[in-house]
Write a structure and sequence with these properties.
Elements: H1 4-14, H2 22-38, H3 42-46, H4 89-109, H5 113-124, H6 126-142, H7 149-168, H8 175-198, H9 200-226, H10 237-242, H11 251-277
Helix pairs in contact: 4-9, 5-7, 5-9, 6-7, 6-8, 8-9, 9-11
The chain binds fe (ii) ion (2 copies).
One fe (ii) ion binds next to helix 9 and helix 11.
Family: Belongs to the alternative oxidase family.
GO molecular function, one term: superoxide-generating NADPH oxidase activity
Enzyme class: oxidoreductase
Length: 292
């Protein structure tokens, strides 16, 4: 039996961490009963209060998923037509793979570009997180820095997820589309992880070409908006704040910003692949942090 003094010392050591065995049960019961006696609010119990954030005008910031310092104006002057001409066998494999994957996507979505954008962003947000995780683990294993690449790749994943949050305001997924996303995510996450383990230069090249296809899709989206086949509704509030857009912006302005983001992702991933192709590691060349 543990003495109450010893048990108390253990609880101080383990804090909120989960441990296995009887101590877990004891800790949960103890904390639960204490929490109930003091307050029903986890905020009060843990003494962690959400930070209050104001925008530049001093108004309350209503978004919890991003802060004013995460907002930016997309650089829409970036070259949309830039293309990495495949030279090596690896480049050709990457380009061919993406072209093959586009085929079923075109058939499934056809000209439903709002839905297409929402669904494709669920895939586009995966590679940055996988690559960032891979580099994170590598950094730990080798006791070395990453040259800022972990943060850059996680920034990309976050940016793609913000695209998804934006398009969720424009188009809601149906039950079978949610099921498709779960299936595709399971397959794509594992496939991309395997690709990254096997060849980071192939993995980044694949994403470079995927982003080129994303630019093409958003260009088609803009054409449909311009010819009136898709209604140019007001921009969602989340998009106006995230991209610092004027208050009267429309869906078209949002798509222009998103397309510019994709062009930046294209450049970052082709750049990363080129570094590997030169026989270097990413950490040898400073990452393009905050490249929008
Ligand atoms: Fe995206
Ligand atoms: Fe992208």
């Amino acid at each position: 039996m543990l003495s109450s003094r010893f048990t108390s010392a253990i609880l101080k050591q383990i804090g909120t961490r989960t441990v296995i065995g009887p101590a877990t049960v004891f800790m949960e019961r103890t904390m639960s009963s204490t929490a109930q006696s003091s307050s029903n609010s986890p905020t009060d119990y843990w003494n962690i209060t959400p930070t209050k954030v104001n925008d530049l005008d001093g108004n309350h910031w209503k978004w919890s998923c991003f802060r004013p310092m995460d907002c930016y104006a997309a650089d829409i002057s970036i070259d949309m037509d830039k293309h990495h001409v495949p030279t090596s066998k690896l480049d050709k494999i990457a380009l061919r793979t993406i072209k093959i994957l586009r085929f079923p996507t075109d058939i499934f979505f056809q000209k439903r570009y709002g839905c297409r954008a929402m669904m494709l962003e669920t895939v586009a947000a995966v590679p940055g997180m996988v690559a960032g995780l891979f580099l994170h683990l590598k950094s730990l294993r080798r006791f070395e820095h990453s040259g800022g690449w972990i943060k850059t790749l996680l920034e990309e994943a976050e940016n793609e997820r913000m695209h998804l949050m934006t398009f969720m305001e424009v188009s809601q997924p149906k039950w079978y589309e949610r099921a498709l996303v779960i299936t595709v995510q399971g397959m794509f996450f594992n496939a991309y992880l395997a690709a990254y383990l096997a060849s980071p230069k192939l993995a980044h090249r694949l994403v470079g070409y995927l982003e080129e296809e994303a630019i093409h899709s958003y260009t088609e989206f803009l054409k449909e908006l311009d010819n009136g086949n898709i209604e140019n509704v007001p921009a969602p509030a989340i998009a106006i704040d995230y991209w610092n857009l004027p208050a009267d912006s429309t869906l078209r302005d949002v798509v222009v910003s998103v397309r510019a983001d994709e062009a930046h992702h294209r450049d970052v991933n082709h750049f990363a692949s080129d570094i590997y192709c030169r026989g270097q590691e990413l950490k040898e060349i400073s990452a393009p942090l905050g490249y929008h």
